[in-house]
Structure formats: structure tokens, C-alpha cells
Write a structure and sequence with these properties.
Strand content: 35-45%
Strand order of the largest sheet: 4-5-2-3-8
Radius of gyration: 14 Å
Shape: globular
CATH superfamily: HesB-like domain
């Protein structure tokens, strides 16, 4: 089930309300208020490129930073073109739990959903 988007929807990565709430709880559990969700694309995986999501306290030149429900999301300038319009959601069902990425820029992806081409 896809949730609604509360942040800007014109460009960049989109974070659903459910995903933003999950990230916010993860940041709170770390006991820090300087962390952002960093989303990047790196070489690897069975389809050529893989997603990387992590909580990060660093800031890099050219980062695209957007805020969703009190959560800042950072994308580096090299990853931004690959992630433009990608929607990040969080699934919590009996059959799956974790972040999911629906990326309109992916020509194909592997069965596990962790990498794309």
C-alpha cells in the first residue's frame, strides 16, 4: 500500500508519510537530531546499480536536501539524476518489512529490488 506524500513533489526523491515516520523513529532511537536519511546510487548488485540508504550526519557539496514530515533526505549530486522522482516507502507486513523504492528511472531491476539498471 502506498501512502501519501507530504513533502515537495516537483523533483528529487519522494518520501511517503509512513517512510518519514519510520526514519524519524530511527533517528530518535539514535538520540541525535543532526541525522538525515542519505539515499545514494552506487555500482553493484545483480542489475548494475544498487541503492544505499543510511542515517548520516555529513553534508557534501551539491547535496540535494528535501524535508518530509520533519525528516531531511539528502541525495548526492551524482545520484540525483538516477533518483529523480523515485518514491521511498516503508512496508511492514507479514510477508515483507523494510524500505521500498519505486524508481521511474529504472529500466529494469532484480527480483530482490535492491539493484536496478
Amino acid at each position: 500500500m502506498t501512502d501519501t506524500i507530504t513533502g515537495p513533489t516537483t523533483a528529487g526523491v519522494l518520501l511517503t508519510d509512513v517512510a518519514a515516520a519510520k526514519v524519524k523513529s530511527l533517528i530518535e532511537s539514535e538520540g541525535r537530531d543532526d541525522l538525515v536519511l542519505r539515499i545514494a546510487v552506487q555500482p553493484g548488485g545483480c542489475s548494475g546499480l544498487r541503492y544505499q540508504l543510511e542515517l548520516d550526519d555529513r553534508s557534501f557539496d551539491g547535496d540535494v536536501v528535501t524535508e518530509f514530515g520533519g525528516v531531511k533526505v539528502a541525495v548526492d549530486k551524482m545520484s540525483a539524476p538516477y533518483l529523480n522522482g523515485a518514491q521511498i516507502d516503508f512496508a511492514d507486513t507479514i510477508s515483507a518489512q523494510g524500505f521500498t523504492i519505486d524508481n521511474p528511472n529504472a529500466g529494469s531491476s532484480c527480483a530482490c529490488g535492491d539493484s536496478f539498471h
